[in-house]
Structure formats: structure tokens, C-alpha cells
Design goal:
The complex is a heterodimer. By secondary structure, chain A is α/β, with parallel strands linked by helices. Chain A is built from 8 helices and 12 strands. By secondary structure, chain B is mainly α. Chain B has 2 domains: 1-149, no CATH class; 151-224. Helices cover 75% and strands 2% of the residues of chain B. In chain B, helix 1 (6-28) packs antiparallel against helix 2, helix 1 (6-28) runs antiparallel to helix 7 and helix 4 (73-91) crosses helix 5 (93-103). The termini of chain B are far apart. The chains are: A alpha/beta, B mainly alpha.
């Protein structure tokens, strides 16, 4: 059974001192499924993501990823096992250009016998960058501009193109379009649609109701550190108003009565 | 008995690498601010030199050793190392990761770069180059004493900053640093040429270093 699930958490809990930021989260993500996590500020969305990606160590609970129980000591381990995350604070090096950032930490190289002094294959990285940007529909006038010269939206697109261009087992985006303009938001959403077509699962943390209904299969609502609803939106059973009701606490999912 | 010249030189370089490894470890693992860690190590090494030599000059009378820093040789070493490190910084993974860590250490770590190991390597290479500078200097002077190379650490900072290296990291180049070194060299030669008193020279150098840093911060602010 566990084969069907890319990610499964059982009783995932995080306390900061006395603050129960996340309490007993049971979450499942099927292969190829796109799920949105919604909830008010402080509802536990980001805390949940930080436990899965190993940025923080959980208080208790189990995380099963790709059929195995995992215990990531840090975000690098999570990434190495195939969880790609676009964090709210972008992990880009401002003084480097687009290919440098796309390939940071996994550069294409030649003359590998030189060890740490092996040569960078700029040509191959440039070509792959152009392909990746074209595929994702991201428009960046000059990829050899450094990141610091780019707009917030372009930076976000680079960060996301970076995530999307490395086929990962699970992609997590934490409010990827929060600071973007209309066109840039559209580019990001196109990347997400593309992941869907490629059958790559996604967890999307978002406040944007329209976006969530446009893009994902299912919405999981967090409230005061607990999951309070699990809504399959593919069949049009729920409206934005329903979701708002769950977020604000006016409604609670049948199976989550105890959290009300 | 005189050993072949390569042996003392290699021992000197290895000691440099060891000092660099200690610096790198303090900085990367114990998170001591780099300026403090290297300043502390600088004093320790000056102390060791003073203690080892009992404050007396040590002379190196062998011709082989003198040849290292003879005549134009320091210029040859300078230019060849500059070329080698230009290529390393520009075209290798080591160079790219060095810039990446300087630019955004967190991003570098998240990208899977082993930041600690890389920093230790950077400090080892830097200290080895400093050790080599010491070899060339003592060879050129055919003597070594504990007080040699006074203020060179500050001149090095000044050259780097004049050459466009950002003190906050991520920006700079070997070509810029070479130009910075030349500018500073010309200024210092000029001071000597016009027979400027040593005390004034110090004051002027201090002013140059501070101006260079102000310029660097101004550049940063303009970018932001």
C-alpha cells in the first residue's frame, strides 16, 4: 500500500517550548498528486514544511518518504533523497548569474580528475539553462546578468526553474507567488502545470484561492497547528467559500472533529 | 649540512597549510568571526617567530635559496600565481563555490555545497600563499627576522579592496586584485621617491585603507 504514497506523515508534531506549532499531523500525498496547504498565518503550514524538509527536527511523529521512514538531519539530506524545496526566502547567490545558480552545487564539469579544481563546463550549463527556461516559459532577457540585477519575480522564476529542472521525487513550494506581479505569477503557475504533466508530485503552500483551485487536486487546511480539513476539489464539490470556512474555523472536516 | 632547497620550502608551505587549516577550522566549525580568528593567529605566529629566532635575524646563505627571490623572480612568481588563480577562480568548481559562499552562504549550503570543508580549503590555500610570500621575501632579503613583513596584512586588505573585492563577499577578481596591488605599489614607491617621512607614509596608508572600505560600502549601497 505504501507504494502509492510519495509522502506520508503520522502524528507529525512540533513544539517550540510550550508553543504547539504543529500537532499530530497525518498527511498523505499520492504519486503525481498536487496538494495545496492552506491556512491562516501561524496555522502551522510552514512549520509542517520545515519538519518534512529537515530544516527543523520534529518533536515526534513519523515521516515516510518514497516508501521508507526518513529522518533528515538537514535540508541537504532531504534534497539528496529527492525533496526539492523553494523556500520563501530564496536560496540564490546574488552575485552569480542564472546558469551558475541553476547548477549551484551540481555543476556540469569536465576534467574531473582535477578534484575540487575540475573545470566548469560553461557551454553545457548555458545550453541546459536555455532549455530549462524555454521549457518552463520563463523569460529572462540576459541569463548572464547577476541575480542582484533582477526583479523579485525574475528571481523567483529562477529559483523555481531551478527546482523544476532537476527531476525530483517531490517538490515543495512555500508561497511561490506571494510577491509577484500578474505575468510572473502566470509563469510560475505554468511551471507548476508542467510538473503536473510530468507526473511530479507537489506540495504548494499558498494563500491564493484562485490559484489553488486552478492548479491542485486537493486542499489540506491547517488551523492552529492541526489539520482541520482534507478537501478533494477535482469534482467541484467545494467552493472558495467552503475553504474559507474551514480556514477560519466556521467548519471542520468530519474526520477532524476533535480539532474543533 | 645543507638540505636541497626544496625541503625547507615545502616544510614552510606545509606549515602555512597547517596554520590555514587551524584558521579555517576556527572559522568554519567554531564560527569565530574570520577577522578575529586570523588576527589572533597572526599574533600567535609572530610570537612563534620571535620565540624561534630569539629575536635574532636568521640568514640563508645558500645560492639555491637566494635564487628563489633573486632579481625579477618575485615578479615572475607574482604573475604566474596570479594567472593560475585567475584561471582557478574563473573556471573551476572551487572558484565558483568560493564566490557562491561569499555571496550567500545559506544558499550555498542549501545547494549541497560542503561549506565547512570548502572554507577550510580556502584558508589553507590562502595561508600557503602567505607562507610562499614569506619564502620569497626572506630569499630576496637573504635573511629572515621575526619583525619582517610588518603591516603587510593591512596592505593586502587595501590592495584587495582597491582592486574591487567586496569585504562582504561574493564580488571581486584576481585581475582587479593585481591592479589594486599595482596601484598600492605605485603609491608606496611614490612616497619613497618623494622622500615622504615614514610617519606620514603610515598615516597616508591608513587613510587609503579607510577610503577604500568607504568606497566599497558606497558601491554596495548603490547596488541595493
Amino acid at each position: 500500500m505504501s507504494e502509492e504514497f510519495v509522502l506520508k506523515t503520522e502524528d507529525l508534531t512540533k513544539h517550540y517550548g510550550g508553543v504547539r506549532a504543529l500537532e499530530g499531523a497525518n498527511f498523505q500525498l499520492k504519486k503525481g498528486e498536487h496538494v495545496a496547504i492552506m491556512g491562516d498565518n501561524g496555522a502551522g503550514k510552514s512549520t509542517f514544511v520545515r519538519q518534512i524538509t529537515g530544516v527543523e527536527q520534529r518533536t515526534r511523529g513519523t515521516v515516510i518518504f518514497d516508501g521508507e521512514k526518513v529522518d533528515f538531519r538537514g535540508p541537504i539530506e532531504a534534497r539528496e533523497s529527492g525533496i526539492e524545496t523553494v523556500f520563501q526566502t530564496l536560496a540564490l547567490a546574488d552575485h552569480l548569474d542564472v546558469p551558475d545558480n541553476l547548477f549551484l552545487g551540481r555543476e556540469k564539469t569536465k576534467w574531473n580528475w582535477l578534484g575540487p579544481f575540475r573545470l566548469l563546463d560553461y557551454k553545457a550549463m548555458r545550453k541546459d539553462t536555455m532549455d530549462a527556461l524555454e521549457k518552463t516559459g520563463v523569460k529572462i532577457p540576459n541569463i548572464h546578468n547577476t541575480i542582484e540585477k533582477m526583479s523579485g519575480g525574475q528571481r523567483q522564476c529562477v529559483a523555481i526553474a531551478r527546482t523544476a529542472s532537476f527531476h525530483s521525487k517531490l517538490t515543495i513550494m512555500d508561497e511561490p507567488t506571494a510577491a509577484l506581479g500578474v505575468q510572473e505569477t502566470e509563469q510560475v503557475e505554468n511551471i507548476i502545470r508542467q510538473l503536473k504533466e510530468q507526473g511530479e508530485p507537489l506540495i504548494l503552500v499558498s494563500h491564493n484561492m484562485r490559484q489553488v483551485f486552478d492548479l491542485v487536486d486537493r486542499i489540506v487546511v491547517f488551523r492552529r497547528g492541526q489539520i482541520c480539513a482534507n478537501l478533494d476539489i477535482k469534482n467541484g464539490d467545494y467552493t472558495g467559500e467552503d475553504v474559507v470556512a474551514y480556514i477560519t474555523g466556521a467548519k471542520t472536516g468530519a474526520e477532524y472533529e476533535s480539532t474543533a | 649540512m645543507d638540505l636541497p632547497v626544496i625541503i625547507p620550502v615545502v616544510i614552510g608551505l606545509l606549515f602555512g597549510a597547517f596554520i590555514g587549516a587551524v584558521n579555517g577550522t576556527f572559522i568554519a566549525i567554531f564560527k569565530i568571526p574570520p577577522f578575529i580568528a586570523t588576527l589572533g593567529m597572526f599574533l600567535i605566529c609572530r610570537g612563534i617567530a620571535l620565540w624561534w629566532s630569539s629575536g635574532n635575524p636568521i640568514s640563508f646563505p645558500t645560492d639555491q635559496y637566494k635564487a628563489i627571490g633573486d632579481g625579477m623572480m618575485p615578479v615572475v612568481w607574482f604573475l604566474s600565481l596570479a594567472v593560475i588563480f585567475h584561471l582557478i577562480m574563473r573556471y573551476t568548481v572551487y572558484g565558483k563555490h568560493t564566490y557562491a559562499i561569499g555571496s550567500n552562504e545559506e544558499a550555498a549550503r542549501m545547494s549541497g555545497i560542503n561549506v565547512k570543508r570548502h572554507k577550510i580549503m580556502v584558508y589553507m590555500i590562502a595561508a600557503m600563499l602567505a607562507a610562499f610570500a614569506g619564502v620569497v621575501l626572506s630569499s630576496k632579503a637573504s635573511t629572515a627576522q621575526a619583525g619582517m613583513g610588518e603591516f603587510y596584512e593591512l596592505f593586502a586588505i587595501a590592495m584587495a579592496v582597491i582592486g574591487g573585492i567586496s569585504l562582504t563577499g561574493g564580488r571581486g577578481s584576481i585581475i582587479g586584485t593585481v591592479l589594486g596591488a599595482m596601484v598600492l605599489g605605485v603609491i608606496r614607491s611614490g612616497f619613497t621617491y618623494i622622500k615622504l617621512d615614514g610617519s606620514y607614509q603610515l598615516m597616508a596608508m591608513g587613510a587609503i585603507i579607510i577610503s577604500a572600505v568607504i568606497l566599497d560600502q558606497y558601491r554596495q549601497r548603490k547596488k541595493a
